[in-house]
Amino acid sequence: MIRVLIADDEAMIRAGVRAVLSTDPGIDVVAEAADGHDAVELVRRHRPQVAVLDIRMPKVNGIEAAAEIHRTVPATGVIMLTTFGEDDYILQALGGGGAAGFLIKSGEPEELIAGVRAVADGAAYLSPKVAARVVAHLASSGAGALAGRRGAARERVNGLTAREREVLSFLGSGLSNGQIARRLHVVEGTVKAHVSSVLARLGVDNRAAAAVVAHEAGIVLPPAPDQQ
User: What are phi and psi for residue 8, nearest 5 degrees?
Assistant: First the structure.
């Protein structure tokens, strides 16, 4: 059973997220919070595998809460809920190292369940809409045109070994270490070593940020049957 905490300052959103997650018998919502401060306290109390946080909340926002959860309860994976127009917040969260997943509130319900399951399994999860928004926003943020961003990402990826590039493509697809290990027919410890090397070589702090690089470089593979 995957234990989940939901945090959003809008009661209707919390109810909607709970309703979606309740359709999966393998997911149990153990607590709800209306702000980031309470979310952190409830995570410490209940120790859920996954915390689903609104990116903008009173008292303590989702980015700050995610960082604190990552620092004090690292076993809890964090998914950020965002809306269109919050690209700057997403980029801050990617840079903060505390979030493992990003979902658009207006996305499909199946994405929420898939994201919770992926993060509970130790993977990063970027909904396709979030990945597209991030890549587009980076391209228009003054760092160069889209072609320039993609070229820079490909250059970074070219600095990886063939196996590391393969692992990065799987990270971009949202696979966990266990799923990557099965795909590559290696033990999970080997995958963990490859992931650590990929993060270090790319100069990123977490799997979600690495997934963005994979999307920018255009090496993300389509979902496989064992991700469904």
Answer: -160, 140
d(C-alpha 62, C-alpha 158), whole Å: 34
Task: Give the relative orientation of helices 146-158 and 128-139 as an angle to the nearest 10 degrees.
Answer: 110
- 28-37, 147-156, 169-178: which range is least confident on average? 147-156
Minimal CA–CA distance to 102: which of 75, 139, 135, 71?
A: 135
Q: Which candidate, 220, 82, 80, 216, places its Cα nearest to that of 136?
A: 216
Q: Which two tokens stand for residue 50?
A: 């996954």
Token pair for residue 61? 């926002």
**Alpha carbon distance 96, 47 (integer Å):** 21
Closest CA to 221 of 161, 173, 171, 166: 173
Is the pLDDT at 205 greater than 80? The verdict is: no
Q: 221 with 134: CB under 8 angstroms?
A: no
pLDDT digits (tens, 9 = 90+) for 102-136: 888 888 888 899 889 989 988 778 776 776 666 66
